[in-house]
Design a protein that fits this description.
alpha+beta; 2 domains; 4-stranded antiparallel beta sheet; two-stranded antiparallel sheet; 6 helices; elongated
Length: 239
């Protein structure tokens, strides 16, 4: 350091500047890689939690409709501040069972609600979160398999049952009774395939908001832990 007139007060060796710059760049790169790894872990953890919360009450199809993604994309440049997103490809269904929504008939007087006895084939979820096949399709499939269903009015209630007669149960569900079953008189009658009601209130059986809070806490912990490990290794910091 010099205090002579016309001379700089102090000088820094260019080599030191380059070394510091390289060290900072390396640290930022390591932080970015750690942040991306933490984001990937939180993304996978969050999706597992959302699917687990949904699977028991709504089944595998709705549970597996949960999707997630990390930005920037894998293979791109790492970022110290990655973003993570989770969404469902069946949002209307998830929201109905999260809020306990009341569903009402749209074009007709009654909602057609399939029971576990009705044929389940032909269902899938589109980008809107609605079933690709309407429930009338399920009715068509049922009557194609069992014949014309019988309507049973429940006395004292605005409720109608659609039942199948002369059926038998096997490992895959109900099927038309075989000739042998009919000859032995072992067929079942009045098996409920559908329930017709004016409206239905969905039970509050999923809680994605609770999972979102848990994801937030998990994310903060994972990011903090990753950055703390880098700081300790590079700078000997404990806090």
């Amino acid at each position: 350091m010099s205090f002579q007139p016309g001379e700089p007060d102090f000088t820094i060796d260019a080599g030191i500047v380059e070394s510091l710059s390289a060290d900072i760049d390396a640290t930022l790169e390591e932080l970015a890689e750690a942040a991306m790894a933490a984001a990937d872990a939180v993304e996978a953890w969050g999706k597992r939690e959302l699917r687990a919360d949904t699977r028991a009450p709504l089944g595998d199809k709705v549970a597996n409709a949960w999707r997630s993604r990390v930005w920037p994309n894998k293979g791109g440049q790492a970022s110290v501040t990655p973003s993570i997103g989770w969404w469902s490809n069946a949002p209307h269904i998830v929201r109905a069972f999260a809020d306990g929504e009341t569903m009402r008939a749209g074009t007709g007087k009654y909602l057609l609600i399939p029971t576990e006895n009705a044929p389940q084939a032909g269902y899938g979820f589109g980008q809107s979160g609605r079933m690709r096949k309407s429930r009338s399709y399920a009715l068509v499939q049922a009557e194609k398999r069992f014949g014309k269903l019988r309507y049973v009015k429940v006395k004292g209630r605005d409720l109608i049952l659609m039942v199948a007669d002369k059926v038998q149960k096997n490992k895959r569900g109900y099927a038309p009774a075989s000739k042998t079953t009919l000859r032995r008189g072992r067929e079942e009658n009045g098996v409920v395939m559908f329930v017709l009601v004016p409206s239905a209130t969905m039970p509050k059986s999923v809680n994605p908001d609770r999972i979102a809070d848990a994801i937030g806490r998990e994310g903060v912990e994972r990011f903090a832990r990753a950055f703390r490990e880098i700081a300790t290794r590079r700078f000997g910091a404990d806090d």
